[in-house]
Amino acid sequence: MNHRMHAWSGAGIAGLALTLAACSGSAVSAAGGDGEATGESVDEVLIGALHPLTGSNAADGQQMANAAQLAVDAVNEAGGIESLGGADLVLEAADTQGTPETGQSEATRLIEDGAVALVGTFQSGTSANVASVAERNQVPFVMDVSALDEILEQGYEYSFRLQPNASLMGEQGAAALAALAEDSGTPVDQVAFLYEQGNYGAAVYEGFQAAADEAGITVDPVISYDATAVSDMTTQISQVAASGADVLAVAGYYRDSLLAAQAVDTVQPDLQAVFGVANGAYDQPAFVTDAPGGGEGYFDANYHWDVTNPDAVALAELYEETYGEPIRTSAVLTYDAVMVVARAIEEAGSTDPAAIRDAIAETDYEPLVVSEGPVQFDETGQNTNAGIVVMQVQDAAITQVFPNELAEAEYRFPAGPAAP
Question: Residue 286 in 3-state DSSP?
């Protein structure tokens, strides 16, 4: 591993200045018309970050843009891109407004402005459009948060994804539940699965079902719903209660997953646990405030920044010191995405997007999110070492609990209405 790149992800954080030095000059200089480096020193290298800075997902989007800037700052504080004469990275953050159409037009604009790589976008629909733009223009695009399997099923060569896709999160979620049950000595024979009926929820369910079958766990009942229209989950949770299932698994977004938690509190089904799978609520600090009983005991098997990694902890501390709020996992994924791009530019020694793309494809960057190893992309652009961790609400905090080697506290299982 390139030691200098490793320093960017860890030690570089501790010494990072909290304010940006002023940048001067053009976004990218000393590049030929075909994008290849001319052999002269490059003053600055532009990369683009696309996130929803306004709209309903602005809280995540702004955090992700902030984290992208912290990553750029860390690279520049460590001396910039050494192979390009110490060139500074320059970040341009674009607002997708949470729509695929705006994301597409902003990606096009960033490339026209000279961006040699893009990161983003938090929403799968937007990332699908940006991936199309990246492929057409042959500019690499590293997805931080975007779970939809189909994005990387188009034969693209310029798009890459850091996080697990939806079906993989379903598979890993079922495997984690089975392992947790075995580790605790509490058998789980039947799981009720509740999921939002869109592409994301369906893919998570299909992955979960396949892995549950392998583990000998019955998945029944299987209940889908329209996340945009549902206003009460009492009927669905009553069906779960009548089924005799040991565990309720939920794959949904924040609002609908909270409705499920409210219905569980009302119906009081005889469950060992409520177990989120790639869930948009059960590992969010806001859930602790919004859920009945603070959501105490709820699990979520999801991607997450690794609280046992000192470099990740250093970034979290820096983020809170700089921006006054705790960092979200989405932001840590963006930080990792920018670092993958920065390392690739260093390895390529070029501002040619094709050369940067090739270096991204060969990366072995050690991420700050939970992972089964260094970032390694397969031929589709999927990170094959992307992984999840099981979290649980404990004493009003989202706590990393399983597997045991990644735990910051012991899990509590059973942990549902049936628990003593």
Answer: helix
